[in-house]
Amino acid sequence: MSKRDYYFDNAKFILIFFVVFGHFLRSYISDNSLIFALYVSIYLFHMPAFVLVSGFFAKSFYKQGYVKKIAQKILLPFLTFQVIYSIFYFYLYETRSFEIDLLIPHWSLWFLLSLFFWNILLLIFVKWLNLSSPILLILAFVAGITVNSLNDHLDVLSFGRTFVFFPFFLVGYYLKKEHFQLLSNNIAKIALLVSATAIFFSAYTHPDFDFNWLFGSISYADLEVTNGEGMIIRAILYVLNFIMIATFFAFVPKKKFFFTAWGKNTLYVYLLHGFIIKSFRDSDFQDGTESIILLLTVSLLLTMLLSSSVITTITEPIIETKWSKFKKIFRKKFQKSNKESIQ
Predict the structure, then answer these.
(1) For residue 225, with 0-12 CB atoms within 10 Å meaning exposed, 13-18 middle and 19 or more buried, which class applies?
(2) In angstroms, rounded to a whole number, what is the distance separating the alpha carbons of residues 22 and 35?
(3) Cβ atoms < 10 Å from Cβ of 51
């Protein structure tokens, strides 16, 4: 594995850690300005950066059979976990009726649905319509800025988030490895770190900021601003998003660490951690745990656990609809038994 592969695997593991950590922080943002600022700062970059990395690795979209491949890789887990989450919520919240709604994704499952549509949009605009990168980027940002002007149905098939986050996916697609290397410059790092610190301080001093802006799934009307004001705020948020994304990638380590290999298992963490987070939020355990160090530790341990070979082996048939890890284990045992019998 090359050094650059270490870089992106490191980035993906750290990002999924921030996803887990951010979800744990959610229970405490109302009463703690420091946690609120940390929450806002994390949400400004963790999912946008994930989307950007997804776009960066979508460069093979033009190959034959690509749509079928991503449909199997993305839509099947979405459908499976949409059903599983429906059952989970039925028992967790003790609802009277059991329903499965395939149009409105449960909680974090929006990412899978949007990821499928981002790939389809890439196929349509880049391969079929052959639009130039400047035109397509302009269209993507215009769509992302204006989509929340719609008042209804933004959550259906993750429509709102698909267009709000599509610019990150598209930028990631057009980026090359060399662009990430530019961030390793010390001057760039200092400038980005100062900017990120200023953003964090601004969030700390403005605890009344509506964090729902960060989700991209709520209309401007529901955010209590006019469409014109909403578009301006969204444009400003895009600037902050990219500053925080650049800051993150500037400090991602390039060497191999104990967690590097786990960067390939982010989908497992993303899909599985929600059951624990939701149970935590609806339990009494969250009382008295308003400690950033404790939440950091629990988030890291949970991320490591869900990235482990034990968990990925057990859940691979559900998440990736294949049995490669089980086959690998059985193959090793079979080879070992053959050697022993020959001896």
Answers:
(1) middle
(2) 10
(3) 26
d(CA 313, CA 325): 5
- CA–CA separation, 104 and 41 (whole Å): 27
Phi, psi for 121 (deg, rounded to 5): -60, -40
Q: What is the dihedral of CA 260, 265, 268, 270, to 10 degrees?
A: 60
What local confidence, expressed as pLDDT, does residue 245 receive?
98
Tell me the whole-structure pTM to 2 decimals.
0.92
> Taking the CA atoms of the chain, what radius of gyration do you get in angstroms?
21
Q: By the 8 A CB rule, do 164 and 144 touch? A: yes
Residue-wise pLDDT for 82-108, tens only, equals 999 999 988 877 666 788 888 999 989
- Higher pLDDT residue, 323 or 147? 147
DSSP 150-210: --S-TTGGGHHHHHHHHHHHHHHHH--HHHHHGGGSHHHHHHHHHHHHHHHHHHHH-TTS-
In this prediction, residues 172-192 reach a mean pLDDT of 96
Is residue 342's pLDDT more than 80? no
Q: Cβ contacts of residue 250 below 8 Å, gap of 6+?
A: 183, 184, 188, 189, 192, 193
